[in-house]
């Protein structure tokens, strides 16, 4: 089950981008690390993630939160069966997210993710 789909915006200046979106659209800062996450007040599913340049990791265009880490694994295996191009391996990140990046047929990079349950 998909929980939400959110766009990513690459930015060389996260502070300037945050100022723009918080001033013009009244978005609030929901997360500062590992990326800058903005959300609409009263609607936490309406999010925008601002990504600084990272030469070590491909930059995704959008994220699809599948709600549960087991669903991330299922989507990963489905992508492998489909022979989709995996551009970031299946990983449990230190910030409690399980994810991988897959490229669609047009080159769009999708971050397939779910938050790990609290320990």
Automatic annotation (TrEMBL):
Alphabetized Gene3D superfamilies for the sequence: 2,3-Dihydroxybiphenyl 1,2-Dioxygenase, domain 1
Signal peptide: none
Superkingdom to which the source organism belongs: Bacteria
One of the Pfam families matching this protein, by short name: Glyoxalase
Stretches assigned to the VOC domain: 1-115
Protein's name in the database: Glyoxalase
Organism from which the protein derives: Nocardia yunnanensis
């Amino acid at each position: 089950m998909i929980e939400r789909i959110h766009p990513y915006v690459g930015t060389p200046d996260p502070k300037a981008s945050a100022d723009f979106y918080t001033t013009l659209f009244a978005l609030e800062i929901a997360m500062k690390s590992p990326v800058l996450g903005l959300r609409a007040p009263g609607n936490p599913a309406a999010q925008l993630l601002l990504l600084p340049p990272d030469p070590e990791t491909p930059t995704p265009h959008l994220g699809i939160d599948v709600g549960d880490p087991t669903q991330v694994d299922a989507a990963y295996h489905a992508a492998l069966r489909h022979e989709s191009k995996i551009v970031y391996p299946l990983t449990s990140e230190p910030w409690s997210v399980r994810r991988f990046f897959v490229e669609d047929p047009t080159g769009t990079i999708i971050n397939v993710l779910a938050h790990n349950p609290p320990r």
